[in-house]
Amino acid sequence: MEPANAKTTSSLAEFGTRKLENEEDVFDHNAWDNVEWDEVQEEEARRQVQAQLDSKTLDDDQIETFDKKAAGFWDDFYSKNVNRFFKDRHWLRLEFPELFERLPRDSEETFTLCEMGCGAGNTVFPFLQEAGEAKVFVYACDYSKEAVGVVKGSELYDESRCKGIVYDITAPDIPPEIAPGSVDVCTCIFVLSAIHPSTWAQAVRNLYKMLKPGGLVLLRDYGRYDLAQLRFKPARVLEENFYVRGDGTRVYFFTNEELATMFSGFEVVQNGIDRRLLVNRTRKLKMYRSWVQAKLRKPLDAPPLSE
Fold first, then answer.
1. Which backbone phi and psi does 46 adopt, to 5 degrees?
2. How far apart are alpha carbons 205 and 208 in whole angstroms?
3. Average pLDDT over residues 104-108
């Protein structure tokens, strides 16, 4: 059952969302969609981020450690949070209806999904349940062996419809279990923000290679000047817009322009920003969240990648 306050319209939709028309009404609700920032607010956020960078304290050796041990930090995360990390992404149908619209309900053709950064199966299992009897197969990939172990240990895991794979999206090639040009949709939900910017190009090459011509990447990640970014202390700065959390996992905060450059070989179906204002009405606090969301299609006439 959906919660009583569940959204019924995409956060990037032009109509049907809750918009703040009058600043005096800001504390009338707990959340507002598509909140526009003025120049003063954006400049203040830019100033805060620059101040973080100017006061950066991590040295090169420390930064390298976080890079070399990235998978290990995620292993620790999942081993400590295995029972409380799973979140049923009920918003998938709302934001990414393509996942379900293309299911082969009356076809012998198999619909293949690859979830990059599968975590505890947040996309895999809701998708399989929603797919019902449709002929589907899901590759659940994560570079944390602990995360893949969580997926494989679930009572919902079925080898005939799903395969968990320990895989680093920045690897030199796609997993041997996945044939080139065989995947219909690849989801990247809060995945690319966890890898170093220097590895983005290889990650995108791998996505491109595994997708069928016409296949989609469905992406959602952290946006520039999100509340989480502005709250970081200088001791957590790795480099510009790239941070390390207290548990050792890393996070980058994107702009839509960076996504467009990163996926320049794809057709852009959507490349938007979801800006939401969350309100604590009791304490009279305003908290601005920002996420990027994109849908990127591999061209139908896409040439094969040169080796």
1. -60, -40
2. 5
3. 71
Provide φ and ψ at 258, rounded to 5°.
-65, -40
Rounded to whole angstroms, the Cα distance separating 46 from 224 reads: 9
As a whole number of angstroms, the distance between CA 1 and CA 263 comes to: 36
Q: What is the pLDDT of residues 109-142, one digit of tens each?
A: 899 999 999 988 888 998 998 888 889 999 999 9
CA 264 to chain centre: 18
Q: How far is CA 186 from CA 10, 22, 47, 49, 244, in A?
A: 20, 40, 36, 32, 26
Summary mean pLDDT of the chain: 85
Task: Give the tens place of pLDDT for each residue, 50-101.
Answer: 999 999 999 999 999 999 999 899 999 888 766 555 555 667 888 898 888 8
Structure tokens at 56: 């950066």
302 contacts 208 by C-beta, under 8 angstroms:
yes
Query: Rounded to whole angstroms, how far apart are CA atoms 138 and 124?
Result: 7
**70-81 vs 60-68: helix crossing angle, rounded to 10:** 60
